[in-house]
Specification:
Blueprint: E1 9-14, H1 17-30, E2 36-41, E3 47-49, E4 52-54, H2 56-65, H3 83-91, H4 102-116, H5 121-130, E5 137-140, E6 147-153, E7 160-164, H6 165-171, E8 178-184, H7 193-200, E9 204-207, H8 216-221, H9 225-231, E10 236-239, E11 242-243, E12 246-247, H10 252-258, H11 265-272, E13 283-286, H12 294-298, E14 303-306, H13 314-329
Helix pairs in contact: 1-2, 1-13, 4-5, 7-9
This protein binds ligand FO1.
């Protein structure tokens, strides 16, 4: 019999690097309050490589909250080495431009072993996280293989090709325009019951400042997820990943351009939409440099708060999380203060 949580149940929908940093701040802010945090992570970056299941966003969150991530690179493990990947390159196995470090390979080998034993990705993730004592419950959005692939015009021969998201993101640095994103396998996929329950039973749902297209967008496109977000009794508050027209990390601008959405805090808010209008959000946090856009966003039916959104350190990120939770407490339609 699990002890029911004493404090508020906070559910966060997140991608990798930006999401992990935000969750670390949220955890810091809620430390000691009795609140519980459930993270629903995007799995669209996942890939079978060298016979192993690699789950970049789950691993970024696990390593960051476990204190084992390489803050400099923004992904992978601290104190990493690459002896095995050099051997894989020598054999021509895997992607030479996508480095699987030795310690990181430990995670992929363990995960693949658990999956081969018949565990779901949710169960395997729970087993991997148990070692790290993360302070949050980390869930993949789906247990089904749904991968983001990118349709490009091949720069070499002009042919239309579809490549895995990671090839577009890492090999091409998103420099080759994406014509569209395809979620391979989505037709027969379902969000997990654990993820849907976490959204429906939450006291507040937060949408992390992750890539709105290939992290938040792909997670919410998994059948069942958007319906749960629209249906939950909990207020839903998002944080803008765009500050002053520039993505905080990663290449969100390239992704937004591919779907015809302007790289501004307002445009992303409109893209997610207000729940009062059939969309996904009740509230939206913009950075102070975007404070002038607040009234326009409120006209969408969203409550808006302008606070510093640069996640420069844990305390700043904790303050962002506190502001998002505070905004969630105000009833819909409450004028922004
Ligand atoms: N990103 C890179 O820029 N170069 C890499 O070689 C690379 C390897 C890699 C291996 C495992 C993993 O989980 C992530 C890795 N990433 C790498 C980061 C990855 O592209 C990002 O974590 C997300 O998929 C995009 O946000």
């Amino acid at each position: 019999m699990t002890v029911p949580p004493t404090g508020p149940r906070v559910c966060v929908i997140a991608g990798g690097v930006g999401g992990a940093r935000f969750i670390r701040g949220l955890r810091s802010h809620l430390d000691g309050t009795g609140a519980t945090i459930t993270v629903i992570a995007n799995t669209g970056d996942d890939v079978w490589l060298a016979g192993l299941r690699v789950c970049p966003d789950l691993d970024s969150i696990m390593y960051t909250l476990g204190g084992a991530n390489d803050e400099g690179r923004g992904w992978g493990r601290l104190a990493e080495s690459e002896r095995v990947s050099a051997e894989l390159d020598a054999y021509g196995v895997g992607w030479p431009w996508f480095t699987l470090g030795d310690l990181d390979l430990g995670t992929h080998i363990a995960r693949s072993s658990l999956l081969r034993d018949g565990l779901t990705l949710t169960e395997a993730t729970r087993r991997l996280c148990a070692r790290w004592d993360l302070g949050v419950d980390l869930l993949p959005v789906t247990d089904d293989d749904v991968e983001t692939h990118v349709e490009i015009l091949d720069p070499l021969d002009g042919a239309v090709r579809t490549i895995h998201f990671e090839e577009w993101w890492v090999r091409h640095r998103a420099a080759v325009p994406a014509r569209r994103f395809v979620q391979k396998g989505i037709a027969s996929a379902q969000a997990t019951p654990e993820a849907i329950t976490a959204v429906l039973h939450a006291d507040v749902v937060l949408v992390a400042p992750s890539n709105p297209v290939v992290s938040i967008g792909t997670a919410l496109a998994i059948p069942g997820m958007a319906d749960a977000v629209r249906a939950t009794a909990a207020p839903v508050v998002g944080l803008s990943p765009i500050i002053g027209g520039r993505a905080v990390r990663g290449m969100a601008e390239a992704c937004l351009a591919a779907i015809g959405v302007e790289a501004t805090a307002s445009a992303v808010a409109a893209h997610y939409g207000a729940r009062s209008g059939g969309g996904l959000l009740d509230g939206w946090l913009v950075d102070t440099v975007d404070a002038t856009s607040a009234s326009g966003i409120e006209e969408l039916g969203l409550r808006v708060r302008a606070v510093p959104l640069w996640m420069t350190d844990v305390d700043t990120t904790a303050a962002m999380a506190a502001a998002a939770l505070d905004l969630a407490r105000h009833p819909v339609g409450d004028r922004a203060r």
